[in-house]
Write a structure and sequence with these properties.
Elements (H helix, E strand, L loop, with lengths): L4 E9 L2 E6 L2 E6 L13 E5 L2 E6 L1 H21 L2
Antiparallel strand pairs: 1-2, 1-4, 2-3, 4-5
Length: 79
């Protein structure tokens, strides 16, 4: 199973971006997206260091809400 994490772009330098999510900052490759298709403030799905899709902010927030629900379920089950 693969997992991609939504992150907000805070800096773009050609085909690299600095992205943040929940206090974690990562350098992310933009090689898999169209050139010029990502700007500061955009949200992207990040998988193994590569941005694979641009997301709307509501979609990024909905993804994090789902992750939170899964984590809460695991905590309640004692896993």
């Amino acid at each position: 199973m693969c997992l991609a994490i939504p992150m907000r772009v805070v800096h773009v330098d050609q085909f690299l971006a600095r992205c943040e999510a929940r206090g974690v900052s990562r350098e992310v490759s933009l090689f898999l997206l169209p050139e010029g298709g990502v700007a500061v403030g955009d949200h992207v799905l990040v998988h193994v260091g590569y941005a694979i899709q641009v997301l709307s902010e509501p979609d990024a927030e909905a993804s994090w809400d789902l992750f939170d629900m899964m984590t809460d379920d695991q905590d309640r089950l004692g896993a």
